[in-house]
Design goal:
Strand order of the largest sheet of chain A: 2-1-3
Helix content of chain A: 25-40%
Number of helices of chain A: 2
Largest interface: A-B, 33 and 33 residues
Oligomer: homodimer
Number of domains of chain A: 1
Largest sheet of chain A: 3 strands, antiparallel
Radius of gyration of chain A: 16 Å
CATH class of chain A: Alpha Beta
């Protein structure tokens, strides 16, 4: 079982790294880029575990370790890969 | 127009950061986690630009700046948001 987790900064939280990347893109000639925000992407492989349980466990892991719930949002999807 | 870009390490490339996270998860009691690999997630907002052109431009940006094509793979999807 595979979980794909997407972590993004909450709306309103400044993203200086994204700003730096936008400036770099602009200086390379990509002036059509309005905004860029950086986040994290994680792939978690599970052993034998039921889907419902995996769902709960992933949520817990995200709250406790994988994300910072104060400034970050997360979404995930679970597949049978 | 919004592009969502997912960057992952190529298969076979070691991921020490992911390994560290797996150990942390294990010590928190999440022993069902077999493997975890970390990547990057980016959201790029575009100004007025055709979809085909956006596609080409994103590919270029990924090759030139946003990813390291030697050790990383990327995928992206473009939406009208």
């Amino acid at each position: 079982m595979l979980a794909k987790i997407y972590v993004t900064l909450k709306k309103g939280v400044l993203d200086p790294q994204g700003k730096a990347v936008r400036h770099s893109l602009e200086s390379l000639g990509y002036k059509e880029v309005r905004d860029i925000r950086l986040g994290k992407y994680m792939e978690v492989k599970f052993g034998d575990i039921e889907r419902d349980k995996a769902d709960t466990r992933i949520r817990e892991m995200c709250e406790k370790l994988l994300t910072n719930p104060v400034i970050e949002d997360y979404q995930f999807e679970i597949s049978d890969e």
